[in-house]
């Protein structure tokens, strides 16, 4: 099977339930007047030869990118760090900070979630204590860091 055919069959398997769900919603919709209005607008504004492309594009936009599943590995621990987006911190900054300060490999660092004022970093379980003790009370970009284990895992 060629790469394109394999791609198509994988996409078909992932989208088929969503398309069926959309079709069921249309069939059971009680707001047919609104659907007819959209249908008229679609017919009026989209040339006949482009309708299937527009439909495909709208389906792609509606379904969006597939959501990434929580990829936290077994044994990882979440660590809280009191710096975030407001300090212009990016995942690459946190990876560098954690790996250099705690002297651990970048491969030991998992998911990173950066919020406005604080961040969470997943670290391999056996390295987590080392990371917390190395980073806590150190100074980063003019701010004293508070680093401890997160109450909830990310």
TrEMBL record:
Pfam families cross-referenced by the UniProt entry: DbpA (PF03880)
UniProt domain DEAD box helicase DbpA/CsdA RNA-binding: residue ranges: 79-148
InterPro entries per record: DbpA/CsdA_RNA-bd_dom (IPR005580), Nucleotide-bd_a/b_plait_sf (IPR012677)
Transmembrane segments: none
Superkingdom, natural source: Bacteria
Alphabetical list of Gene3D superfamilies matching this protein: 3.30.70.330
Protein name from the UniProt record: DEAD box helicase DbpA/CsdA RNA-binding domain-containing protein
